[in-house]
Each structure stands twice: as structure tokens, then as C-alpha cells.
């Protein structure tokens, strides 16, 4: 942490790896406590808001439960479902995409945990749209997927709120399109099922 100095990006990366390795063998509460004691004071010294620093360490504790290769979440779920551990672990990480995008977003959108009211609502909308735009199920077209990924990264991490808000529009259009396409597909399948009876 002394090596990282006051560079927030380096501190966040070092904190992530520290929390990741601690989380390999400990439950979330222990991971949070140890990471909070070791990492959070250094983050606060570097100028990060205490709420943001502690929420980041808390999310690291939660992520430690599903982090490979000792994913406790995948071990329990695969045992219950009688499924392959590795496939369950990969699927669990895919399901936790919101957590993975939320962890670094705490630094670029600290209003999520600091500011009540409209500022928090805007930060939430940006993180939500950014997460939805990074979803692998948003489209099968690779070019659209790449464009949406760029817009999502801007929504999540760009400091200019107006530019970040502008990028929410194409993401929202794609999300609505996918939603209505799936709804239409379900209704057609439903009619076909009824006709076949």
C-alpha cells in the first residue's frame, strides 16, 4: 500500500488482489474485517471517502465467496444441483457481473454510497445502464456488443456526468429492444403451444 502512494487506481487494484487472496480461505465477514483493517485506512489516507473505502472492502468480502479456484458458492451450488463445479463457478461469476462492475464504480460514482437524493439516483442509473450494456445476453452481434461495451465503460467510469448520461440512451434502446423481442418470442411460443393442444 505504501508503494501505491496516493494513486487511487493502483490502491484499488492492490486492494482487490489482497481481498481476493484473503477471500480464498475465509468467509465474507472475516475477509471484510481483515481487508478493512489493512486496506481501508490507506485508502482513506489517499483521499477516498471512508464510506466508499469500506463499501469497496465489503464488496471484496462478498466477492471472495465466489472467487476461483476455491469458490465456496460454486462448491455448495454444484453439490446441491449435482452439477460440474467448474461450470457452476464460471456461471456464478457471470451472474455476479453487477457486483464486479459495482466494485470499481464506487470510486467513480461515490454518490452511490455518500450522497442521498437525486445524485444517488443518477449514479445508480449510470451503474445500472453500464452493467446492462456489458451483459453478454444483450445481443449476439459482436460489433453492437463492442459498441455497447464502450458506452457502458463510459457510463461507469467517465468523470463527465453529461457524457456518461448521454451513453445511457443507446444502451437503454438496446435493452428495451431485447426485452420486447424476448416478450414477443415468448408470446408466439405460447400461442403455438395453445394451438398445438
Number of domains: 2
- Taking pLDDT < 50 over at least 5 consecutive residues as the criterion, the unreliable ranges are 191-197
Proportion of helical residues: over 70%
Query: Number of DSSP helices?
Result: 10
- Following the backbone from N to C, one meets helices and strands in this order, namely HHHHHHHHHH
Q: Could you give the distance between the termini?
A: 66 Å
Strand content: under 5%
Keyword list:
disordered C terminus; 76% helix; mainly alpha; 0% strand; 2 domains; 197 residues
Please tell me about this protein's structure.
The chain has 197 residues and is an all-alpha fold. It folds into 2 domains: 1-108, no CATH class; 114-197, no CATH class. 76% of the residues lie in helices and 0% in strands. The chain contains 10 helices and no strands. The chain has helices at 8-23, 28-38, 40-45, 50-64, 72-81, 85-95, 97-108, 118-133, 142-157, 161-196. The longest helix is centred in the last third of the chain and has 36 residues, at 161-196.
Give the secondary structure arrangement, pairings included.
Layout: H1 8-23, H2 28-38, H3 40-45, H4 50-64, H5 72-81, H6 85-95, H7 97-108, H8 118-133, H9 142-157, H10 161-196
Helix pairs in contact: 1-2, 1-4, 2-4, 4-7, 5-6, 7-8, 8-9, 8-10, 9-10
Amino acid at each position: 500500500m505504501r508503494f501505491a502512494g496516493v494513486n487511487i487506481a493502483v490502491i484499488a487494484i492492490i486492494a482487490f488482489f489482497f481481498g481476493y487472496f484473503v477471500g480464498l480461505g475465509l468467509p465474507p465477514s472475516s475477509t471484510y474485517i481483515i481487508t478493512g483493517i489493512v486496506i481501508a485506512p490507506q485508502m482513506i489516507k489517499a483521499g477516498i471517502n471512508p464510506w466508499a473505502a469500506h463499501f469497496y472492502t465489503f464488496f471484496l468480502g462478498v466477492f471472495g465467496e465466489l472467487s476461483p479456484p476455491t469458490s465456496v458458492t460454486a462448491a455448495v451450488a454444484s453439490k446441491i444441483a449435482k452439477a460440474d463445479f467448474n461450470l457452476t463457478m464460471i456461471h456464478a461469476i457471470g451472474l455476479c457481473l453487477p457486483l464486479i462492475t459495482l466494485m470499481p464504480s464506487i470510486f467513480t460514482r461515490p454518490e452511490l454510497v455518500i450522497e442521498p437524493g437525486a445524485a444517488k439516483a443518477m449514479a445508480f442509473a449510470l451503474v445500472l445502464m453500464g452493467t446492462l450494456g456489458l451483459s453478454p445476453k444483450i445481443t449476439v452481434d459482436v460489433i453492437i456488443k463492442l459498441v455497447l461495451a464502450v458506452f457502458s465503460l463510459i457510463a461507469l467510469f467517465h468523470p463527465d456526468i453529461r457524457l456518461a448520461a448521454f451513453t445511457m440512451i443507446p444502451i437503454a434502446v438496446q435493452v428495451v429492444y431485447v426485452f420486447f423481442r424476448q416478450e414477443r418470442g415468448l408470446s408466439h411460443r405460447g400461442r403455438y403451444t395453445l394451438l398445438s393442444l
